[in-house]
Amino acid sequence: MNPRRQPALQDPAAASPLSTPVLALLATYFVIVWGAGFVATRLALQSAPPLTYIAVRYAIASGVALVAALLMRAPWPASAAAWRHAALAGLATHAGYLAGSHYAQYWGLSAGVTALILALQPLVTAVVAARWLGERLSGLQRAGVGVGLGGVVLVVAHHVDLGSIPVRGLAAVAASLACVTAGTLYQRRHGAGTDLRTGVVIHLAATALVTAPLALLFEGFRITWNAPIAAALLYHVLLASIGAFTVLHVLMRHGQATRVTSLLYLTPPVAALFEWWVFGTAPTATMGLGMLLTAVGVALVTRRA
Length: 305
Fold this sequence. Notes:
mainly alpha; globular
């Protein structure tokens, strides 16, 4: 699941703005669920390797999303090309994104650092769009790029000094960032006309269909069924894949997508705090400063005039 690509699917018939208390409640739910999801992933990976867990999670989630779309009588794409575009966007923003981020944690990268690097996605998308799609960056946005990257370097360099960041974990999360950026740009170009509800079904189903055979081939589809992995699946399917997408859809329908997107920069500290609570991995002052700089940098890059 990647929320930063969803505004491209916004329903043009937006409803009236939400009241401040309702907006705060929904946005808080979304940020906490998304940030804690990184810790739920780390918990699940103790009982199943990454591709296996993704395949099981998305098989369940696609079934639930399909039932919801049918009950709501959501419109399906009208052409084979639209189905293909939705599937390709889903594979990049779900399969590629999660495979990279899950393997990063599977190979020892902390949930907080993983969330921090992936929080750069709006920044990287803006830079790529400016370089190859002709979208100009203002001086303030260019400064935001430097500030955001500086925050990541501060966190990562601190851990490297301690010898605690695995190189293959960094490579995996970098691949995850590349996939979600490519998927976001592809979605922006080819998927704007797809209904959110049926688009999510296609994304989830395509991810399950691709990751299941890969999990069988490379991981033997090994999974230990126990209380922790059942809790992680329940969390990811209901609270994240279904609940968070529903909240985002409500926010977009009421014209609040931009405001809630700005709160996504809080997910790295949320992930770090939940990791501290569940696994006892305490964040350092340097890590907190780096996360703050990254949030400021991404906010500068993604701000609207």
